[in-house]
């Protein structure tokens, strides 16, 4: 059997187990025993790769951002509109739902752990800049109400989508209703609908 | 010493301890030992008032809604505008910040526990109906763009404020920036600014 273990691969495997448990039961479910069982490895193995539970949680947050970045990049190609990106942030499929649950599970922790808070902020900044760039491009094309400031609007849109994502998770609204509300908001900042002539 | 113990009062005292711990460390910090220490009573006492940890968490959610209702009622008197109510939902002071943290701590749990989910939905419905009523009154007074539907707009506004509340908690924005974004949104649905003549 090969002696060499792919250290990073194993850490990612453990982080994936942390994410699955956090999505299912919140961080309170993330114990050394549960993570080992979920990852299908021994407790000692988990301890070999992470010095502490906090260490494991911090690493899991970095992989969370990775998933978000992948989803953004996948949606940021040519011709992608801001609407597509915003909808991609709603928990409409299993993967996005799990990501939203894990992000929520980590939120309270993020407020006490500067390292985790930093990962959250970096992820938010990336999103905000991406949305602002898409809005600026739309404005340059004359598709946006001229008074709309891309940077400000990006922050407003992301807050709206974040609130809608929680509302969908909690069953206050369906995914379709959330999309309709995004469209309602976008109709107010796009030039075509406001000046239809 | 009086033998009679005020059962409900004691349960509220324990729930307050649960909320303080949840705001500080998330639900993962809520153990029997921690709650007893925080409430300044014995473990046996806690067990006397709650059959299980789940039972205790469920009760704590009901008291959470109580705090929200009080805040709404306090802001729903004559002459209260929707803006005031929305701003009251932002974590701008210690109490509102703790409430927001506790609600976040309970969110993942709410998705697995129908009873807690029910409390969340009832609280949201109350808020939505209150905001919709304020918007309907504003529309009747000619203060709203006539095409704005109060019920739909209430859901959109609450999603926006919920996202802004998380953003303020996480330090993405300051409280003042969040208020400015609420005002930006309200300026788009109020009649005066859109038709200034």
Automatic annotation (TrEMBL), chains A, B:
Q: Which residues bind DNA?
A: 31-50
Protein name per Swiss-Prot or TrEMBL? TetR family transcriptional regulator
Record-linked Pfam families = TetR_C_6 (PF13977), TetR_N (PF00440)
Upper classification of the organism? Bacteria, Bacillati, Actinomycetota, Actinomycetes, Pseudonocardiales
Lineage, top-rank taxon, reads: Bacteria
Does the entry feature the keyword Transcription regulation, yes or no?
yes
Q: Which InterPro entries match?
A: BetI_C, Homeodomain-like_sf, HTH-type_TetR-like_transc_reg, HTH_TetR, Tet_transcr_reg_TetR-rel_C_sf
Residues annotated as domain HTH tetR-type: 8-68
């Amino acid at each position: 059997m090969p002696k060499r273990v792919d250290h990073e691969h194993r850490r990612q495997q453990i982080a994936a187990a942390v994410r699955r448990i956090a999505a299912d039961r919140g961080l309170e479910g993330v114990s050394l025993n549960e993570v080992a069982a979920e990852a299908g490895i021994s407790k000692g193995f988990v301890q070999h790769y992470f010095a502490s539970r906090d260490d494991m949680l911090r690493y899991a947050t970095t992989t969370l951002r990775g998933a978000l970045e992948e989803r953004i990049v996948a949606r940021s190609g040519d011709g992608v509109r801001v609407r597509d990106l915003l909808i991609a942030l709603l928990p409409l499929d299993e993967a996005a739902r799990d990501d939203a649950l894990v992000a929520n599970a980590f939120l309270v922790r993020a407020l006490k752990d500067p390292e985790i808070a930093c990962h959250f902020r970096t992820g938010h900044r990336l999103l905000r800049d991406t949305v602002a760039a898409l809005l600026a491009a739309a404005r340059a094309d004359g598709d946006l109400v001229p008074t709309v400031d891309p940077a400000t609007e990006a922050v407003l849109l992301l807050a709206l989508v974040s609130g809608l994502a929680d509302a969908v998770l909690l069953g206050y609204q369906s995914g379709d209703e959330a999309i309709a509300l995004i469209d309602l908001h976008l109709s107010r900042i796009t030039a075509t609908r406001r000046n239809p002539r």
